[in-house]
Write the structure tokens for this entry.
Amino acid sequence: MKQTSEYTGPIIRVKDLVKKFGSFTAVDHISFEVNKGEIFGFLGANGAGKTTAIRMLCGLLEPTSGALQVAGFDGYHQREAIKRNIGYMSQKFSLYEDLTVYENFRLYAGIYGIPRQERIRKTDELLKKLNLEESRNKLVAGLPLGWKQKLAFSLALFHQPAVVFLDEPSGGVDPLTRRTFWDLIYEVAHQGITIFVTTHYMDEAEYCNRVAIMSEGKIVALDTPIALKEQYKTDSMDGVFLKIARNKE
Amino acid sequence: MIKVSNLEKSYGEVKALKGISLEVEKGELFGLIGPDGAGKTTLMRILVTLLLPDSGSATMDGLNVVDDFRKIRKMVGYMPGRFSLYPDLTVEENLQFFATVFGGTIAANYHLIKDIYIQIEPFKNRPAGKLSGGMKQKLALSCALIHAPKVLILDEPTTGVDAVSRKEFWEMLNKLRHQGITILVSTPYMDEANLCDRVALIQNGTILSIDSPKNITKSFAKKLFGVKVETTAQRFECVGLLKELDGIDSVFSFGESIHITSNQKDINEVNVKEYLNNKGHQGILVEKIEASIEDVFMELMQNEAN
């Protein structure tokens, strides 16, 4: 099996990917590649097929047809390897609210089989970096939303995945925290970790290197925010999104 | 129509509302704008008589939310943040249920919901739990309206909803307002503030500002510049560089541009651009811009924190 560190090709490779549920085609022949260290935005209306696509990319769902590789692993036969090499954070923050901050780290480290010494060292390092040292033994339930968000992100990165999936990571978070969070995203991308992000905030779409927009199971637009705005002759990603949705009707 | 004065509510040690006062006029579309945990839901739940305040008072159409709760429940339509219809009942059965609970019929107030309900009517025999997000939202609004309430209270109806459905939802609210219904709506999306007659910016149980969106953005006291860069990588570096520039108070990414604020006389379009050029960044565009609600909100948040 290939190790992530040796793998140098595109982190995500999708070609003619299809997922059907009975007679319903949720994902309809989508193709794209995402490179190492790229921030890739994945947008679409509710029900466009985003969640189904992401579930396949995370190794949670087997595709119906088409090619899929994540971090060099095959989306049909190496789904467990995919799971070990990605990080995932959802809007619900996937934290255990009735465990302490420290216990959450221990749990994640345990799940990913990170050795004890390394776990202790990295936990200390991260708590320091996040300014959470004083909250080390506090229950996650009592933390402010912005802290939970940062904590969830750090946990998703704890096992040094090749790519991290952020599923609406900033819903409901205040505007200052939202921006601090994006600073963090940039920092991580800068270190070479690929970011795959969905959001309903169109200003956040502007922060991505490239953006794909899904509609009715297909990718209907894929380019840099600047190129998309030129193509659709509008001055914001909000405008792009609205024009695409309207053409559909 | 709604009058709230010095309202306080705590959950254990957490103060959810720290003495909030506001008034909503009859027929107004009033927005509560703020992030999760600001106290929006607590305030709404007190107004719809589902929660008792610790102190302070709230009235609706002159009726007290504590003493006259029975009367208030008849005159208010409430759409909670979480989908709260019966998932096993069909679309039509849910609507029927809510009409009957208030002693009415669907036919009696059909004119109020017609524009909205017509869009989900083709699915009237589908269980509500099997609807898409956008359709659930339309059904929930129909159910909140079917007893012809004087006041409509909507808790984050557009959260997690895509940009297109959000736009449609606000168009529906606008129509309802023209029918004379008073609407109090909460949202974490700052850009939606502009669609309200007046808004209260709320954070940590405190109101930061109440006014029309126009007056709120006009109140922004600092100079504000938008800096446009050519690539995503450049943006990251420029944000860092601008933070190091003397005389700049704040630097934030704002969609396609970077917003910087300053109180200094000698900070202007030309020298900000020169500064970035000298640091090796070309293709920079700097212009003076008007503040948005989000700029004001962040400025007020920072003042509050200091």
User: Anything to note?
Assistant: The first strand of chain A starts at residue 12 and ends at 21.
